[in-house]
Amino acid sequence: MIQVKKVFKSFNQEPILKNINIQIESNEIVALQGPSGAGKTTLLKSIGLLDTIDSGSIIFEQKNITLFNHQEKCFFRNQQIGFIFQFHNLLPEFSGLENILIPSLISGKSFQQGEKNGMALMESLNISDQAHKKPSEMSGGEQQRVAIARSLINSPKLILADEPTGNLDSFQSTELFKLFNKIRNKFSTTFLIITHNKNLAKLADRIINIKDGQII
Ligand SMILES: Nc1ncnc2c1ncn2[C@@H]1O[C@H](COP(=O)(O)OP(=O)(O)OP(=O)(O)O)[C@@H](O)[C@H]1O
Ligand SMILES: [Mg+2]
User: What is the total count of domains within the chain?
Assistant: First the structure.
């Protein structure tokens, strides 16, 4: 599904990604591990077209997505990718349900359709009672799960998750991984998940290790 080929990226003349080559099959759950500062988030953002690379290519279903123009990139992100960020980036002035609905509305679905899908996702994540609360009125773990529901609302082919269990206890973290597995089985979703948690990484199909901007 995804081929990252000879990817290089620097910030302020400092090389951060140094010749990254990886391949991810569709339907795989892959964990990305490595020390702080290794380049994990940078790689994830590059694959999700939230950041540009200096050279190399990223192929998504046979298309070189790094060559997309601005409009194609926006469409690709909205339709194909679900993001779960390290700091969940919920919009503070909107309720839980509204946050989840936004990508659905952007994609052109009706409010009613989005609301129905959003509530079903909230139920499966055990956060229905957060639907009408603002993020500031939720716990960290509840905000995290709202962000997860938001990432799933457009049934993306690929979920890119940066420390999705960061605010969850070990029971909730294992439950979340089980949920990812269920989603994969039901919707053939592919997952690339950054996690520091070695026990969780073991639940993935495969672990990719990155150190100092290189795959090891
Ligand atoms: N926008 C930026 N401008 C300059 N340097 C950056 C920027 N983003 C990341 N970096 C640097 O790139 C390196 C890799 O950062 P990255 O966020 O990819 O690390 P990481 O592996 O995700 O670490 P962590 O586990 O701490 O989240 C770090 O040295 C960081 O300081
Ligand atoms: Mg990071």
Answer: 1
